[in-house]
Amino acid sequence: MKKILVVILSALILCTASACASSGSSEASDTASASSAVSTVSSEESKAEESVQASAVYEEDEEEGISLICEDSELKTELEDIVNQFEYEGMIYITKGGKTLAEYAGGEPEDGIAVDAETPMPVGSVSKQFCAAAILKLQEEGKLSIEDTLSKYYPEYTIGKDIKLKYMLSNRSGITNFFEGMEKGISNDYTYEQNSENIKKMLFEHELNSEPDSKFEYSNSNFFLLADILEQITGEKYEAYIRKNFFEPLGMTHTGTINEMLDGASFAKGAVYKKIDSQRGLTKGAGDILSTGEDITLWLKGLSEGKIISQDSYKLMTENYSPGNDYGYGLYLVYNGVGHPGAIGQYTAYDFINTDKDFTVVIISSTLDTYSLTNLVQQLILKVSS
Questions:
Q1: Residues in CB range of 104: below 8 A, 6 or more apart
Q2: Does a structural domain hold residue 91?
């Protein structure tokens, strides 16, 4: 697939990169700090942005390693400056009205194989929406209810016995986020199952941070446990379930999980996977997916169009259960649409869809910190929506 960077980026101002230090943890996906960088964009601000037309002549700069669609030589220079200034490694993929509006992929991983549009990259907590959709799919099939309490699935978890699944989906359970000291009970010397059991044991011994459904508290632990409940119900590994029910039906051929990659799965051939030391099972449900811009776009469209869960279930995902934090089930309600940031190791990501105006924006990077990436996403959304 060709690598394309389109004029839609225009004169973007990212944040002052020197003031933004990358802070993704190798042991978990993004934290609540990612959500604090999110702000709603008003329609007035959107109208104020100059519209840029994407119809252009294809050009390719072999020396710079940049391919782009651009009708303006000055803008072409600006785009090259953005990529070169930030030594941007990763991908950008934008669609509107069902057509690809922008596509870029570039960078060089440690093995020397150039990054292209089919190179899977970690997306961190973008993964949470997959877990949320899987739980709602099981509810549609009558295999669980989001009104179920954890006492049904973990009788030993007496501290959290009254927590409902819907509180976990909306990050309102009060369950603590993965905490320091957890590394003592997990190792890649252990199996996926052993690590999962050790994580649960440590979580179940820890007091709740707050009363269930009393407030929003971002916690990776919620989605780890939801994925574990899915495994109880289906008898399948979580990764196998989402591959069979989501990746394959939607044609997401360059998407998989960290655990599959550790096992040498074929989807991960040529994948960028440097400086991530994730233990087996730790990121399950919360930050375990590797993908591409095009595949995540297939996901966003399939999810919102009722191809994998019903429209009623999608509506549940996109309701605002925590005004002020603007969180649904595995999705933030932002920029007049829905999406989610992600961070794991040195990687950051963001996916977004506005169904009213029919456009998507997906960014995955190994060189932008969360704050810079969120600013870039905001600028792209302003451009596309104007």
A1: 3, 4, 5, 6, 66, 67, 68, 83, 91, 92, 93
A2: no
**Residue for token digits 């004169």?**
11
Q: For residue 76, which amino acid is it?
A: K
Determine contact, residues 274/108, Cβ cutoff 8 Å. Answer: no
Decide if 107 is inside a domain. Answer: no
- Of 241, 29, 33, the C-alpha closest to 123 is 29
Is 304 domain-assigned? yes
Cβ 84 vs Cβ 38: under 8 Å: no
User: What amino acid is encoded at 367 in this protein?
Assistant: T
Tokens 């785009």 locate to 79
- How many Å apart are CA 351 and CA 263, to the nearest integer? 27
Domain span at 160: 121-366
Q: Which of 359, 348, 351 is nearest to 382 (CA)?
A: 359
Give phi and psi for 208, each to the nearest 5.
Answer: -70, 150
Give the list of residues 6+ apart from residue 187 with CB closer than 8 angstroms, or none: 195, 279
Per-residue pLDDT tens for 120-140? 999 999 999 999 999 999 999
Under the banding of pLDDT at 50, 70 and 90, the label for residue 277 is: low
Distance, in Å, from the CA atom of 350 to the CA atom of 122, rounded to the nearest integer, reads 11
- pLDDT tens-digit profile of 341-379? 999 988 999 999 999 999 999 999 988 888 888 888 887
pLDDT of residue 21: 31
